[in-house]
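Notes, Module 5: Reading structure tokens.

Key idea: the token line is not a picture. It is a compressed description, and you learn to read it the same way you learned to read a sequence, by spotting repeated patterns. We will look at two proteins. The first is printed below with its tokens.
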Amino acid sequence: MKNLAKTTILLAFTGLAAPALAADMYLSGTLGYLDLGNSKNKGSFMTDFTTGEVTGVSPPLTIPEGAPVGWSTSFDSGMAYSIAFGWRMDAIRFEIEYAMSDSDISSHKGVTAAGIDLTNIDAGVLLTGNVGDLGVTVGELVADGQGSQDTSTFYLNAYYDFMHDSAFSPYIGAGVGYADTDVKFMPSGVDVINDSDSGYSYQFILGASYAFNDRIELFGDMRYRQTEDASVKSPLLSAGFDVENSDTLFNLGLRYSF
């Protein structure tokens, strides 16, 4: 179904591009500063989960299949890149964009399972069959961020240039697309999540262009992007999670018309 959705979007790109052959066309590229929003990772156990035996959890607990588990994740500032092919018809522009972004994990916190706050419990509780304390709490384990979240997206964008006949032209825009999100959560080197998922994405754009001549323009914009939660699995906990993916992006780019 997801492959069908992606194919449908790409066919829509092709169909919309056909009438643009008579319009002014351009290529553009951007480099951006990415602020990826915090994610509340909500999930549930896919099978019964037996905790490790540690101080305060003895004997081990059996958490039933379907019980909730989750935590929140914060990210370092990241980088974003894009290339685009566009066509211009007076004040209106359409564009096919391929965008990439990546952010490192800053930290995780607030781990709960079946309504139990695990922050101050020894991390051995996360390991089925473990007996004895590891000497580090769950909160201390996950506070060490390690890992990354990377997204690549095909967008179809539409823009309106307010002063398209002038060298300086503010613009607004919006886009819809399909994204692949790669999630790697490795707090303290522990492989908690290493999975990927695909889903729809949209973005809103506010920016301005400055034309040096008929061919070359410098532009900058701010974008808010929202992508469907990535549904991923954890081999450590035998659980599935929905990881949020929204960001604010500040771009600087060049546009070449031909």
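Here is the second protein, with the sequence above and the tokens below, as before.
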Amino acid sequence: MSAQQPYSFFQSVERSFDKAAKFTQWNPGILEQIKACNSVYQMRFPVKMDDGRIEVIEAYRVQHSHHKAPCKGGIRFSDEVNQDEVMALASLMTYKCAIVNVPFGGGKGGIKINPRKYSVYELEKITRRYTSELVKKNFIGPGTDVPAPDYGTGEREMAWIVDTYASLKPGEIDAAGCVTGKPITQGGVRGRREATGLGVFYGIREVCNMEDVMNRQGLSVGIAGKTVVVQGLGNVGFHSAKFFREAGAKVIALAEYEGAIMNPDGLNEEEVFEHRKATGSILNFPGATNLAKNTDALELACDILIPAALENVINGDNAPRVQAKIIGEAANGPCTPEADEVFTQKGILCVPDMYLNAGGVTVSYFEWLKNLSHVRYGRMEKRFTENLNGHILGQIEELSGKKVSDKERAFIMHGPEEKDLVHSGLEETMITATREIMEVWKSNPGIPDMRTAAYVNAINKVATSYAELGIFP
């Protein structure tokens, strides 16, 4: 397509899929089935606003793949929501779940509204009506389709969804598993809020621990001392910046839609967040330099660039000016296929969104399992582990005649809380996924970039599921 006719988001995903499919041996028919969206539900429903007028709301739910059940994917509230975007995000969820070995098919939902323009009561009515529409067509349920928060939604909306679902399905014992990202009191899981940012950190950390990869990028092994730029100070960007800083990296710039700030000595995301809360902007943060445009942050010289805002922020136009050595896609689709080609030429390693920001869905999987098992993580083993560790420690101290420090004693004695187990499961997931993708890439030198390697990995897993189900005799 010409520059005047850019690829739609879904076409960009299909283009990346086709690029990777050439490196697989599957029947073209199976590849077409994997690529296609299985079910697209477009709806319109009326809602009475606070001032008495009736507004017709446009909304969507897409189930991309049924090779595993249930389907899984967030619901976003945004003016920009359209069918193409929801289809693209649903397909990315299929590949994302396959890569991180989470047994879900991909799904996605969206309501075309700007949530800032509605009262809480209006948002509640819209969310509950949307949920009832999904129930009518069997597009929600713990074994069918499990939504989650996304752009413009959070725990509050998920609580409304689970309450509406449970009221329409009285006596369904697993009703809490119909949606994830819920408040803890409604069956949510501890560690969910920071999950995506923490997953981004674990994925990049594993890449940075690979000596051959770091040698190729001209960087030292490990996170410590690396310079990092983060675009977006929402939930994902904030926690990404936090975990990188705590691991010894230097966050030299932060960008938001109102502008960007830079400090070569490093920024503390919590202080910047408080400054923004007080002033309404990250600009004019003490000790930092304001950048002319928020997109200028994407072009700063740094070791690691984390785009954690919206899609298509790095494209064929600005990609040649990107100076980062590693890009970690924390947002969905922040780099276009044209940008990927530039990165390949320049030797920039782009760690793709389709697995890097899978922390949210991984921990959603843990929440769903918790809802189905009806028991909190750690409840069965926490005290047993503490008692056992205490006994071992006592024996070591008695035999050695030495005492460990109070700090070490507390660490050794500690039995796992729910949050500890969730973070541990997420760490294992991201390390395993990173290694699998790198193995695919190494085993086929023709694969041009890490995104294509990730797609090849996903295609092989989904196609194997279809083959084993006997769908294609």
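Summary for the second protein:
- The chain has a mean pLDDT of 91.
- The domain at 39-186 is CATH 3.40.50.10860 (Rossmann fold).
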